[in-house]
């Protein structure tokens, strides 16, 4: 039986994220959903799996939460349940950057659709930056992308501050797995005074789903945070195995 996997996020102002947790947990449990959802004052993030009907019911509930009508969701499929349990957690941030005052809902950079991404990154005046950690980059990345060699997303701001002058005068294009880290990193760059910053809408997963392999600039596979381990073009499970315990939990 094929199971539906939904990678989702939305930056939205949750005044009381704790009040949202139990109803969401109860719904997911009733529907037989497994996976992880994170709730924070800045919104929701996570990846869950279950039957198509169960996922549809859960997505409908999440879209009803304050500011989540435009919830970003990317669907893929798995032959077996890719998660062992269900977790709905309260966090300070739905993706950890540790920079106060960043508001991706208001300040994120301009989106570039997967269909326009190749032309953008082929432009010699564009510098392409992979915002994921070094472990993930080891599975695959776009040809010519800068690898910051960070251990976790929270290291990205210090890396940028140390290297910003290198990219002066360039348009900065950034990408990540599903789009959430790019929302935050482009908002951070704009707060640093960088106006020419864009990011891949829907992240690598959207690109691998929408761009034909014959036209792709992607090299390798894309690490995902479940037991499928990694996916390739068409979001087909590749299943490469990581070294035990070596990857941080930078979701999205």
TrEMBL record:
Record key words, sorted: Oxidoreductase, tRNA processing
EC number: 1.14.-.-
Reactions that this protein is recorded to catalyse: uridine(34) in tRNA + AH2 + O2 = 5-hydroxyuridine(34) in tRNA + A + H2O
CDD domains named among the record's database cross-references: RHOD_YceA
Pfam families from the UniProt entry: Rhodanese, UPF0176_N
Annotated ranges, domain Rhodanese: 122-216
Coiled coil: none
Listed SMART domains: RHOD
Record flagged with keyword NAD: no
Protein's UniProt keywords contain Cytoplasm: no
InterPro entries assigned: Rhodanese-like_dom, Rhodanese-like_dom_sf, TrhO, TRHO_N
Reported function: Catalyzes oxygen-dependent 5-hydroxyuridine (ho5U) modification at position 34 in tRNAs.
Record family assignment: Belongs to the TrhO family.
Protein name as catalogued: tRNA uridine(34) hydroxylase
Organism: Croceibacterium selenioxidans
């Amino acid at each position: 039986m094929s199971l539906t996997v939904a990678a989702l996020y939305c930056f939205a102002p949750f005044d009381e994220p704790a009040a949202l947790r139990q109803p969401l947990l109860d719904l997911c449990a009733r529907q037989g959903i497994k996976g992880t959802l994170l709730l924070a004052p800045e919104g929701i993030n996570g990846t869950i799996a279950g039957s198509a009907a169960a996922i549809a019911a859960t997505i409908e509930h999440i879209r009803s939460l304050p500011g989540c009508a435009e919830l970003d969701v990317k669907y893929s499929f798995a032959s077996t349940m890719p998660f062992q349990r269900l977790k709905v957690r309260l966090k300070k941030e739905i993706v950890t950057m540790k920079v106060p005052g960043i508001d991706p809902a208001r300040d994120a950079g301009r989106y570039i659709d997967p269909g326009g991404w190749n032309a953008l990154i082929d432009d010699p005046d564009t510098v392409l930056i992979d915002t994921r950690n070094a472990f993930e980059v080891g599975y695959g990345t776009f040809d010519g992308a800068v690898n910051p060699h960070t251990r976790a997303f929270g290291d990205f701001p210090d890396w940028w501050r140390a290297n910003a002058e290198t990219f002066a005068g360039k348009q900065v294009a950034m990408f990540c797995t599903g789009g959430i880290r790019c929302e935050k990193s482009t908002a951070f760059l704009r707060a640093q005074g960088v106006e020419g910053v864009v990011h891949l809408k829907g992240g690598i997963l959207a690109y691998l789903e929408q761009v034909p392999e014959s036209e792709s600039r992607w090299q390798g596979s894309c690490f995902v945070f479940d037991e499928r381990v990694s996916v390739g073009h068409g979001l087909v499970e590749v299943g490469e195995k990581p070294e035990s315990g070596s990857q941080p939990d930078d979701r999205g």
